[in-house]
């Protein structure tokens, strides 16, 4: 079972994720990504879905036209875990491509 990050681990992880915001109430990280249009947004979500399924760790997200809002937390751990940080890193790499 995956454990939630300690305060020190969380702080270190967040330093490496400047595009993500910390949601203290949910012990989660969030990011909003805006694309040129719906097709690009949906294509991005498809890429993330494949990585998330392979990792067996799935985001909470919404999509409205060209905007994708992502929230990552590990329900089994009761908060932010290394799985969230790994998925956030993978998502950032996709956006930078």
Q: Can you describe what's shown?
A:
There is one protein chain. This protein is of the alpha+beta class. It has a single domain, classed as Transcriptional coactivator/pterin dehydratase (Gyrase A, domain 2, 2-Layer Sandwich), CATH 3.30.1360.20. It is 43% helix and 22% strand. It is built from three helices and four strands, in the order αββαββα. The chain has helices at residues 7-15, 38-55, 82-96; strands at residues 21-23, 28-34, 60-64, 67-72. The protein has a four-stranded antiparallel β-sheet with strand order 1-2-4-3, covered by helices on one side. Helix 2 (38-55) packs antiparallel against helix 3 (82-96). The longest helix has 18 residues, at 38-55. It is globular, with a radius of gyration of 13 Å. The chain starts with 6 loop residues before the first helix and ends with a helix. The mean pLDDT is 96.
Round the Cα radius of gyration to an integer and report it: 13 Å
List the helices and strands in order: HEEHEEH
Shape: globular
What is the share of helical residues? 40-55%
Catalytic activity: (4aS,6R)-4a-hydroxy-L-erythro-5,6,7,8-tetrahydrobiopterin = (6R)-L-erythro-6,7-dihydrobiopterin + H2O
Family: Belongs to the pterin-4-alpha-carbinolamine dehydratase family.
GO molecular function: 4-alpha-hydroxytetrahydrobiopterin dehydratase activity
EC number: 4.2.1.96
Protein topology:
Elements: H1 7-15, E1 21-23, E2 28-34, H2 38-55, E3 60-64, E4 67-72, H3 82-96
Antiparallel strand pairs: 1-2, 2-4, 3-4
